[in-house]
């Protein structure tokens, strides 16, 4: 027996009424591939034992920082797939980080396997499509912080990834590492970009057909990575904002957007209100759409995606506190006069195109 959740496909009109949006938006959402490039809920499983198979409430903080997603709610929200992330603890010694990663990937797999009727772990578009046919949520796996596997300079630590299961690796996170410099103000020193080891790591990821994710990296590191990246492979930026709307250390500028598009990649817009230019506790989902619109204006509708960062210590907009309100984002895109085709590309079509280009 599968996990309990409300299947809104049975009564889309009721869901539209509950969310205060049009039935058109609901039906478009339900008819789409809806994929999230960055879900961080597993970090709370590791820290607090957060049960991914249990339906959680927003809690006393109204989903500020956590309690924004879990498998039952993602199923109910019509999220057909996502990259579930294993975040690296930079405080561990390098070899210890690799051992921790090996334990965590097995733990995440076991957590997802607890819901076999609702979730399928996938590595490519073919497996995603099979999960869709079986009416399951397709779980890709990613690493946040390439220093999980940086202790071997030749990239051989990537052999710890079982069955080529990891789809993407974010090179750096909130701290500078042996691979390169973070964009975060928590990084110390200047922007030294990508190290020699970092450049070798990019080449090793390319060889394994694992996406290089350029979220969180410094601007110099971003272009250092692209300088050695296999030009035949697309690149990802899974969760970010854009400086063309909101100047911020976490966001990409137009030159960076063009560089991602030139390789056929896509950029996922995240939902942290302050990164999008709003007050932390009173953001609006219209700001997410503004960042998506800027990407579309600069590089076209084929390079914009969704990368929520659900449960990654973010404070989402007040009108989309959890994944259950996601169709309101569809309504906001339609309200801009965007075509169904554009909306469906952003919801998941662009990401699937990019994954298929790399892995089939």
Report on the architecture of this protein.
With 360 residues, this protein is an alpha/beta fold. It has one domain: Metal-dependent hydrolases (TIM Barrel), CATH 3.20.20. Helix content is 37%, strand content 12%. The chain is built from twelve helices and nine strands. Strands 1, 2, 3, 4, 5 and 6 form a six-stranded parallel beta sheet that branches. A three-stranded parallel beta sheet has the order 7-8-9. Helix 7 links the parallel strand 5 and strand 6. The longest helix is centred in the first third of the chain and has 20 residues. The model has no long low-confidence stretch (mean pLDDT 96).
SSE blueprint and pairings:
Elements (H helix, E strand, L loop, with lengths): L11 H8 L3 H8 L4 E5 L2 H7 L22 H6 L4 E7 L6 H20 L5 E3 L3 H9 L3 E8 L21 E5 L25 H13 L2 E3 L5 H10 L7 E5 L13 H9 L3 E4 L15 H15 L4 E3 L20 H9 L4 H20 L1
Parallel strand pairs: 1-2, 2-4, 3-4, 4-5, 5-6, 7-8, 8-9
Helix pairs in contact: 1-2, 2-11, 10-11
